[in-house]
Structure formats: C-alpha cells, structure tokens
Design goal:
Largest sheet: 10 strands, mixed
Shape: elongated
Strand order of the largest sheet: 7-9-12-15-18-20-24-25-22-23
Distance between the termini: 31 Å
Structural class: mainly beta
Radius of gyration: 22 Å
Helix content: under 10%
Length: 299
C-alpha cells in the first residue's frame, strides 16, 4: 500500500525541529496560521510525504504524523501499520492556544503575544496532540477531546464519554460506547461497551507485545479490567480485573490461567461473592441490555 500526501508542517524556528504536520483529507495545500508563527517562534511550509510500505517503520517525524492521520481517518485499522520507533521520532511539544511550541518556549511566547489580547492556555505537554485538532471522524461523539490522541481509530457510531480515553493505534470497529480506557494496540468490536472506569491492557503496558481485543456485543463492566482478549458476547462483571495470570474456575471445575480463555466467546467472568474465586461461566441467556441505538446515531 503506497501513500502520498501533502502536509502543512510547523517547525521551531531556532532549532528546525518539526513540531507537527497536518495532512488534510483533500490532499490539497491548505495553510494554517497561529500567533506563535506570527511572532516568529515557529515557521511553516508544505511537505509531500510518500510511504511505500506501511509494514516498514517510519523514518521521519513527518512520516510518523502521516501514519497517525491514516489511523484516525480509519484508512488503516489499529495494528495495521508499523509504528515501531514512533516515540523517538515525535518531539515533546507544548500544545497551546497560540500554536505548538517547544516547552522551553512557552514563557517567551507569553511575552511575545502580550499585545494580542489573547489569554494563553496550554492544553498539554506531550508527543501526541489531540486527534480532533487534525482529524474529525464521521459519525462520532467525543465528550472530552483532550482524552483522544491523534492516531486513535474511531469508527462511525462510536461514543466516547467524558471519562473515556482512546490512545493512538487503538480504537473501535463499529457502534460502541467508550467510558473506560482503550490503550495502544486494543480494538473494540461492534456493539460492545467499555464501562466507566474500566481498562484494557495494551501493548505499552509493561512493554509487552500481547495484543488484546474485545469482540462484538461484549461488556467490560464499570471499573473492571482485562489483560486478555474477550471474544464475542462476553461479560466481565463490574470491578473485576482479569489479568493473563488470574486463576479462573471453569464450568468443568478446572482452575486455569485466564490466558487459556483469551479470545473465547460467550463467557461471563465474575467473582464468586461467597468463595472469592474468579469464575468463567457460559453466558447463556444472560443479557446486559446491549447498546442504545439512539445514543450511537451520531449524525
């Protein structure tokens, strides 16, 4: 898959470091402007970036930004391209209301724009900017844009509530509710719900390579968590954290590590309120209600 796109790049004027690159979907030369550029702290230009093979790692900051755009545009699914070394390519940036600058330049920026009647705010200091400043996906609601990084993959029908968080190279594959944390490498299947305060271990958790996912029509309960994959039609009860090494009692009475059940469908994970043991039971006719279709019609 070969990709060629035109991007608008901001660079630190003094050092020449690339701060960001925006790639419009139209692939046209569209310039941006900001106060940091007006006062000379940063400069901008257009760049044309071509990626011959998405399976190969990025070589430049600009190419890393293009890969993040492709994910957020839903042109490529999470884990569908190589992001090895991306942290080393991205500079740490102060993302301000007057434009991106190097963190050491924030005070200088404040002084230079004092005559502009502009109250400077710094939304974050990070290698990754907010997705919504670069890509607006179709059919999506996001309660707090600060909690969705560029490189998140949000399919139409996704609702990210205010406490939901979606990292880069992670996201949803259809109608879904995200009230918990979806970490790198994790995908959430259609008609699934990531409950409030819940968490899914991703590829950055402890530096591991295990890729976890949630299948379709599954529920990760409030304040629950998983270090394994869930198949389709699964439930993890509220407050239960199932790591790969968690000892789980099966319907046959065997006790196995949860990793042996990773990806299995039709299971209910719960903690027995009398014995305290973690159990995996056939979900059977147990229903959690499913998604409210009205909430995910995000036109």
């Amino acid at each position: 898959m070969s990709i060629k796109r035109i991007g608008h790049r901001y660079r630190d004027t003094e050092s020449g470091k690339t701060l960001d690159t925006w790639f419009p979907r139209s692939n046209k030369q569209i310039a941006r402007s900001c106060l940091a550029q007006k006062v000379g702290l940063i400069e901008s230009d257009f760049v044309e970036i071509e990626i011959q093979d998405l399976a190969e790692p990025a070589k430049t900051t600009e190419e890393a930004y293009l890969r993040l755009h492709l994910l957020s545009e839903c042109e490529v699914q999470p884990n569908g391209l190589n992001l090895d070394g991306v942290f080393g390519l991205l500079n740490n940036v102060a993302w301000t209301s007057a434009g991106p600058v190097l963190p050491a330049k924030v005070d200088e920026l404040r002084g230079l724009i004092v005559e502009e009647n502009h109250h400077l705010t710094v939304t974050s200091i990070d290698k990754f900017p907010r997705m919504t400043d670069y890509v607006i996906p179709a059919g999506v609601r996001i309660g707090d844009a600060d909690r969705v990084r560029l490189g998140a993959h949000l399919s139409s029908g996704t609702t990210v509530m205010h406490e939901g968080f979606v990292n880069f190279n992670a996201g949803t594959l259809g109608d879904s509710m995200v009230e918990g944390r979806v970490t790198p490498g994790v995908v959430v299947g259609k008609n699934s719900d990531v409950g409030a305060g819940s968490s899914i271990m991703g590829t950055l958790s402890g530096g591991g390579k295990q890729i976890n996912a949630i299948g379709e029509r599954s529920l990760l309960g409030a304040n629950a968590g998983i270090g394994i994959s869930l198949g389709d039609d699964c439930i993890v009860e509220a407050g239960l954290y199932v790591t790969a090494g968690t000892k789980v009692k099966t319907p046959d009475g065997d006790v196995v590590a949860a990793r042996q059940l990773s990806g299995h469908s039709g299971l209910l994970f719960r903690r027995n309120s009398q014995s305290g043991s973690v159990e995996a039971l056939p979900k059977g006719d147990i229903e959690w209600g499913g998604l409210n279709s009205v909430l995910h019609s995000n036109d």
